[in-house]
Design goal:
The protein has 16 helices and 18 strands. The chain is α/β, with parallel strands linked by helices and about 425 residues long. Strand 2, helix 3 and strand 3 form a beta-alpha-beta unit. The protein binds NADPH dihydro-nicotinamide-adenine-dinucleotide phosphate and L-homoserine. The site of L-homoserine (HSE) has 7 residues, from helix 8.
């Protein structure tokens, strides 16, 4: 029998308790052992009692878990950085294997956690930390380990994907959709981490570290959220053959530099990720041998996330039965340079309001030209009083040049407002 110490019996913790009970027989067959929850550390005892957990097994004191020699695996589902980090490290130092879903923690303290796991030869698994129920961490470490990974692009946040999908389908503005999503419980009361792109940034930091064998932390990720996206941008995107998605992008260039960024992007409608709607997540991976693959599913929720946690537990039990723990440790064996956002070269969508009179377009084009920004498409969408709305798509240009040009333009009297600047993604793939 393999015994578990569960830290946190909230949404995901409760799901793990339910799943281990519901599929107990299958799980025992597959793992080779009966898996039992020996202790649960939880502030709110009622949550545990509602699941039928023996009151004797409930504690509010971590020492009861760490001191229990019968506990082989600690499953951390409390969330947050501290005390979760301290508890995980203590568990490892006591020779206990650890499963967590805590992306906040891994994205900032991954190095220390992996080093401690390695030092104590324990397993440290975290499949649920990225993409909820979608298998992606383990496939990158195992099934795709023979590839040089060229890019990982994800829709890694369900809340923002739901908001953008609804804005797109119903032509509504961001604020309106956010409020509806909060009322329906799809968005949290405080949605800051989701809408600012921070949640997706944590997840792509984790995935890119595995994909490129290089320690990438949250601080390395360039982040923009979706709060500036308007119904107009979504409408123009559609007219031009794109959808707007919050993408988490990690790529390695030919010289071994890593691009790592989260921002809204224009994505061609025929890109596989363009069809990922509502709260669904997906991860698109390109490897030199496998080519393009996409993992799709529910990126959050009680049972999908519990599915990933229980999968990790089963893997550890298999390792225990074969004395193979510590087999798959940290895969970051080199440190690759991070490309600064100024050096990024992509295509851009720009929407601006300008004075509608002869010579204005030429004046704007000359500022772009002087900064090496080449325009591919210009549309004048509306003319109201003396103002016109200009929609431009650039060729591939350097971000620094574009920012310099926009800084000059925003100070010119002929420019009313630079409304939106959104990067394009996936156009190379479609052109090829
Ligand atoms: P919840 O807030 O629902 O559950 C956490 C539980 O842990 C709560 O019951 C909380 O009690 C308890 N807890 C927190 N700190 C302590 C402590 N010091 N001592 C005792 N009990 C404590 O969170 P979730 O289940 O949603 O998330 C858990 C983890 O899974 C997080 O890392 C999250 O990022 C991750 N995750 C969650 C997903 C989801 O769909 N929910 C998806 C993917 C990952 P109290 O409520 O009293 O504070
Ligand atoms: N808040 C996240 C989302 C789920 O909206 O996708 C937990 O990672």
């Amino acid at each position: 029998m393999i015994q578990i110490g569960l830290l946190g019996c909230g949404t995901v913790g409760s799901g793990v308790v339910k799943l281990l009970e519901k599929n107990a027989s299958t799980i025992a067959q597959r793992s080779g052992d009966e898996i039992v929850i020996r202790r649960v550390m939880e502030r709110d005892v009622e949550k545990c009692l509602a699941l039928g957990i023996d009151p004797q097994s409930i504690t509010s004191n971590f020492q009861d878990i760490i001191d229990d020699p019968e506990i082989d695996i600690v499953v951390e589902l409390m969330g947050g950085i501290e005390p979760a980090a301290d508890y995980i490290l203590q568990a490892m130092r006591h020779g206990k294997h650890v499963v967590t879903a805590n992306k906040d923690l891994i994205a900032v303290k991954g190095k220390e956690l992996f080093e401690t796991a390695e030092e104590h030869q324990v397993d440290f698994y975290f499949e649920a930390s990225v993409g909820g129920g979608i298998p992606i961490v383990y496939p990158l470490k195992q099934s795709l380990a023979g590839n040089q990974i060229q890019q990982v692009i994800g829709i890694l946040n369900g809340t923002t994907n739901y908001i953008l999908t609804k804005m797109s389908r119903e032509g509504l503005d961001y604020q309106q959709v956010l409020e509806e999503a909060q009322a329906l419980g799809y968005a949290e009361a405080d949605p800051t981490a989701d809408v600012s792109g921070l949640d997706a940034a944590r997840k792509i930091a984790i995935l890119s570290s595995i994909a490129f064998n290089s320690r990438i932390t949250l601080n390395d990720v360039y982040v923009e959220g979706i709060t500036g996206i308007t119904a107009e941008d979504i409408r123009y995107a559609r007219e031009l053959g794109f959808v707007i998605k919050l993408l988490a992008i990690a790529k390695e260039d030919e010289s071994g530099r890593i691009q790592i960024r989260v921002h809204p992007a224009f994505l061609p409608v025929n890109h596989p990720l363009a069809a990922v709607n509502d709260v669904f997540n997906a991860v698109f991976v390109q490897g030199d041998a496998v080519g393009e693959i996409m993992h799709f599913g529910r990126g959050a929720g009680q049972m999908p996330t519990a599915s990933a946690v229980v999968g990790d537990i089963i893997e550890i039990v298999r390792n225990l039965n074969h004395h193979t723990n510590g087999r798959i440790g940290c895969t970051c064996y080199e440190q690759k340079p991070i490309l600064s956002i100024d050096e990024l070269e992509v295509e851009y969508y720009i929407r601006m309001t300008v004075t509608d009179r002869p010579g204005v377009l030429a004046g704007i084009a000359s500022v772009f030209g002087n900064n090496d920004v080449s325009i591919a498409t210009v549309l004048q969408k509306s003319s109201d009083d003396d103002l016109a709305e200009l929609i431009m798509i650039t060729h591939r240009v350097r971000e620094k040049g574009l920012r310099d040009a926009l800084a000059i333009l925003s100070g010119m009297s002929i420019v009313g407002e630079i409304n939106s600047v959104i990067r394009l993604e996936g156009t190379q793939r479609v052109k090829a």
